[in-house]
Amino acid sequence: MSDRPARLRAHARALLALGLPLAGSQVAQMALHVTDTIMLGWHSVDALAAGVLGASTFFLVFTLGSGFAQAVMPMVAAALGRGDEAQVRRDARMGLWLSAAFGVMAYPVFWNARPILDALGQDPVVAALAADYLRVAGLGLVPALGVMVLRSFLSALGRGQMVLWVTLAGVAINAALNWVLIFGNLGAPEMGVVGAAVASVGVQVAMLGLLAAYAAWGPGLARYGVLTRLWRSDWPALGQVFRIGWPIGLTGLSEGGLFHASAIMMGWIGTTELAAHGIAIEVTAVAFMIHLGLSNAATVRVGWAEGAGDGQGLREGAAMALGLSGVAAFAIIALYLTMAEPIMRLFLNPADPRADEIVAFGSVLIVLAALFQLFDAGQVMLLGLLRGLRDTRVPMVQTAISYWLVGIPASYLLAFPLGLGGAGLWLGLTVGLAVAACLLGLRLWRRLGAMGALGPAAPLPAKG
User: Fold this and answer.
1) Which domain holds residue 342?
2) pLDDT in tens, 350-369
3) Which of 25-34, 41-50, 127-136, 259-268 has the highest mean pLDDT?
4) What is the rounded distance in angstroms from the CA atom of residue 442 to the CA atom of residue 433?
5) Is residue 259 within 8 Å of 282, Cβ to Cβ?
6) Is residue 439 a contact partner of residue 402, using CB atoms and an 8 Å limit?
7) 209, exposed or middle or buried, with CB in 10 Å at 0-12, 13-18, 19+?
8) Listed residue (95, 66, 64, 65) closest to 79, CA to CA
């Protein structure tokens, strides 16, 4: 009798053991932004709209820079699969170098955000508040990217639990600081949207400190010396992190750009619609973090298998990862279809005169989000599997085509010329994600076939 079912169950257990803490930490990370959205929504609709616009702009720049941090995960996993601990240290250290350099160079974008937002046709009041937010929040880019590098390093080592606990601590700190700074409690000035930015910077610095301390002195981690002689250069490793990382950053930018463009176009429709869109995006982003956590676990597992030359383990692990992501997607679809309106009301002050209008519009968007759940889950899981193989350049091109040449034009066409408004924008998102999932699935199939990983129990070809 074949032992394949037993192997698949083992893959499922291993993926869940690694993936659930990572999914939890991704959800907790998203909870930082959800907390901002809820508290700004209770402050005022203008503050909420500005927070949505500012946070989406910050996230777009952060996503571009996070490619170097994300490259660390498959590289460290593959090095561990080969038993090369020295390379683990080199890859993580150079990821920190590149991330810090990007964060410093990107800050002028945040400082000069106001004319950019004005040029994009945003409401002047909302644009001014969003620009104030970005000038402060931009100071948190370097620590935020540093957190991402250490998350990747620890995740590749199977230490996702600590990442989860540190992120949960960040959520608690963020909520407390928001309560003080947004609303002016405990004698603090009422800072509104700027208070949310100050809180975000403080949280990123605190999280970086906690993760750095654990990475340096946690049980069994001192031997890697990831922060030892941090100033010491390693140009081959830096070049490798750069080559793998920049396509990941641009891939994230392509997807982030799709959603940012939808926020910009929703702003053309109206402030109320933009506020509802912001809440609905936050809700769907929380669900996406579950898929992203599983995708990160798949990246690590594939990296381990690829580094060890285990073709069968790679193939079966990829199949199980896609199956688990599909189960999660169906559960989320059921939640969206049954709880759209109650979810929307969590984010708004019932006394706000525009609350009912925002809830009605946002509920429609959340129901529409059920349409793209399977495609969104599929494309992020496929990206994670391909990154585990350190295949990043072709997926970058495929996602750019899917999101920018298909998704954004489809959103504009459906929303404005065809008159579907905000619902049309979200239908266009579905089209872009569906095309991406199809192209990435074909790419993974071809890569596994080329590597010999589709054959029965075949080892991967030796690396030359």
Assistant:
1) 7-451
2) 777 778 888 888 888 888 88
3) 127-136
4) 14
5) no
6) yes
7) middle
8) 95
> Which token pair is 389?
């193989």
Alpha helices by DSSP H, 157-229: 160-181, 193-217
Give the Cα separation of 320 and 209 in Å (integer).
35
Q: Which of 35, 41, 128, 34 is nearest to 354 (CA)?
A: 41
User: Does residue 461 sit within a domain?
Assistant: no
Q: Which residue has the tokens 């969206």?
A: 336
- Rounded-to-integer distance, Cα 65 and Cα 68, Å: 7
What is the C-alpha to C-alpha distance for residues 277 and 93, in angstroms, rounded to an integer? 39
List the structure tokens of 160: 């996702």
Look at the block and give the residue holding tokens 């997926």: 395
Reported as type and span, the H/E element at residue 149 is helix 141-156
Amino acid at site 350: P
458 in any annotated domain: no
What are 47's two structure tokens? 């503050």
Distance between CA atoms of residues 144 and 110, nearest Å: 15
- Predicted pLDDT of residue 460: 43
Single-letter residue type at 353: P
pTM: 0.78
Q: Do 104 and 331 contact (CB within 8 A), yes or no?
A: no
Question: Is residue 464 a part of any domain in this protein?
Answer: no
For residue 2, is it within any domain? no
